[in-house]
Amino acid sequence: MITLLLDRLREARVVLESPGPGRISLHALFPDSHPLEAELVSECRACKTELLAYLDFVREADRRLLETSHRLAASWPEGCHLPEYKEWRAAEEELTRSYWTLDADTLGVTLMKREQVAFELFAAFRNQPDDHSLTKGDDDANRQHTAN
After folding, report:
1. Is 49 exposed, middle or buried (0-12, 13-18, 19+ CB in 10 A)?
2. Is 87 domain-assigned?
3. Which is more confident, 85 or 142?
4. Helices assigned H by DSSP within 81-147
């Protein structure tokens, strides 16, 4: 499976790139202490098509994530700290899981859901009294407001 090969590349401290259409290149980050092994190069050559598809996915995923990040940044209310909210943390965990499915459709759905969660939390934050005392954390019983 491609994720196992990607794990091996990470462990070997090797960067995978595509310098041009249909081409891959491997670069050892620390060639003195972690030289690029011939076996790993051979394995990458054997999986070239899958690695190129992975690199295409990563480029598209990064583009889509950046787009949603720009939309969130444009709406982000000052003082709202999304990582403090369990809904946001759950959306971030789901994003990580869907990213590693390497499926663009799954990632797209997850990015839309994540963005919706953020906008709902932004709205709830804005609707709080001036002290913005929206209760955060995992205790729903103590929540002053729950975003729908």
Report:
1. exposed
2. yes
3. 85
4. 86-99, 104-126
